[in-house]
């Protein structure tokens, strides 16, 4: 049995992790049935990501995707000239993503790891993207999360993310960080509004923070207005 004594910060984090759902098993099971009606199972990129590209805010370089799932955004970036490292802790999603990359003749460096265990070279990336991973990160890991981004990004680089907004149709718990531990659950994902995102990412310059734009079933991009899309620049 693991020794239940807190000697350092990582022991403390592990204790708090143990009060919440273990993510790796959950996300590995999540992708076992690819036919489930899950909005982000369709292989189309986020509309905001496409808009950053079309509007010339982002120019191809080196990208890191956190929690890439079956890879729809990593594929879009690779198709548009980016060199992409894409990380997820679920083997089932990475297998699916790799199959999609092969079908499309694309090379993406998929990495099976927890984002908190990544070895990242300082300032190695022009762009870090996260679609739907951040809202599943427990509050006690939030500072480590922003440290990962800060380490990964070069000066002038961008971080883009989509998250549940508070009380959204698909998730977005409106609970305090303390309540997460009283309940022993993130309630399916935390909700973040513009003010909260600006505060969490206050060391960056906000470029655009808005709701995603809803898309219908026939669209070649993904968008749900119950999600926030935020882009920040590292100064
Ligand atoms: C809602 S899914 C989104 C998947 C993908 N970004 C998309 O939009 O299609 C969140 C993903 O984050 C991954 N994830 C959650 N916590 C993670 C962590 N600590 N490290 C790596 N991946 C993580 C999950 O395995 C899951 O694939």
UniProtKB/TrEMBL annotation:
Keyword Transcription: no
Repeat keyword on record: no
Domain Methyltransferase: 64-157
InterPro entries registered for this protein in UniProt: Methyltransf_25, SAM-dependent_MTases_sf
Example GO molecular function: methyltransferase activity
Gene Ontology biological process terms, A to Z: methylation
Keywords from the UniProt entry: Methyltransferase, Transferase
UniProt xrefs under Pfam families: Methyltransf_25
Signal peptide residues on this chain, from the entry's feature table: none
Lineage: superkingdom: Bacteria
Name of this chain's protein: Methyltransferase domain-containing protein
């Amino acid at each position: 049995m693991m020794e239940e004594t807190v000697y350092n910060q990582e022991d403390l984090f592990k204790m708090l992790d143990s009060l919440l759902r273990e993510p790796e098993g959950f996300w590995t099971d999540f992708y076992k049935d690819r036919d489930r009606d899950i909005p982000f199972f369709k292989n189309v990129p986020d509309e905001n990501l496409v808009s950053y590209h079309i509007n010339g805010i982002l120019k191809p370089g080196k990208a890191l995707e956190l929690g890439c799932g079956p890879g729809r955004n990593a594929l879009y970036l690779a198709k548009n000239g980016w060199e992409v490292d894409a990380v997820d802790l679920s083997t089932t999603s990475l297998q699916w993503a790799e199959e999609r990359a092969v079908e499309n003749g694309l090379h993406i460096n998929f990495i099976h790891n927890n984002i908190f265990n990544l070895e990242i070279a300082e300032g190695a990336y022009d762009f870090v993207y996260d679609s739907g991973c951040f809202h599943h990160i427990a509050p006690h890991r939030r500072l480590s999360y922003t440290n990962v981004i800060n380490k990964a990004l070069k000066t002038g680089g961008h971080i883009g993310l989509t998250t549940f907004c508070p009380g959204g149709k698909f998730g977005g718990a409106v609970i305090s960080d303390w309540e997460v531990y009283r309940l022993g659950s993130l309630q399916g994902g935390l909700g973040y509004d513009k003010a909260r995102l600006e505060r969490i990412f206050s060391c960056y310059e906000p470029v655009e923070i808005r709701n995603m734009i809803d898309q219908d079933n026939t669209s070649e991009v993904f968008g749900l207005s119950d999600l926030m899309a935020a882009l920040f620049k590292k100064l």
